[in-house]
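Board notes (copied after class):
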Amino acid sequence: MTAKCSCFLFCFSAFLLLFTGSCKHPNKNSTAEEVFQSGAVGDTSLKLNTLRLPEGFQITTFAERIDGARSMALGDKGTLFVGSRTENTLYAVIDGDSDHKADQIMVLDTTLNTPNGVAFKDGSLYVAEVNRLLRYDAIEENLDQLPEPVVIYDDYPDEFHHGWKYIAFGPDEKLYVPVGAPCNICDSAVVDKRFASITRMDPDGGNREIVAHGVRNTVGFTWHPQTKELWFTDNGRDMMGMTFRPVS
């Protein structure tokens, strides 16, 4: 196995550590922006020393006190945007002195409908709610005054069960958006062919199409650095575990 392939597989597995969301109930009534200093990141209860890393890799805590952190996207100016599933909260994490430890955590919004997925492209932050996609333009220049988002697509199913979304831009510059099955064991595609699929669209929401069927609930995907092949996780029926599959 080549070094690039090893790094790809390690990174693909590592991002799964994000999906450990809190069990708190979402607070839809809070709208105030909150800013607080990150805690002492060196003092953590996480047993990082139990992780086995490839030679040359090391791991430390970057930020804490981000309830329900689920997906991440890095801005052009180093701002780390974090989406959540159960908290309905969108965060911005700032490392002002570039020491690889968060200095400030900003709560940008607490009124979104399950803003699980986030992606960044050309200065804009893309956020996936259950049934629609939002774009915040020039967001890193406006963190103190969150701009009104542009709704680029609002016609996804609104079922909450597996409705939260992980999103990412592919090497083809398309935005990839999954639609989970709204059930445990069923043929949901008979009801709506978009269920249990991975879709993609232009950055402005145009030309949406289905690129993979039969994907019950993917909570993460990435592209092979050499072949550009799309690999994704697929959460099978409850209590049956997770699989990794390429799009074929």
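Comment from the instructor: DSSP finds one helix and 16 strands in the chain. The radius of gyration is 18 Å.
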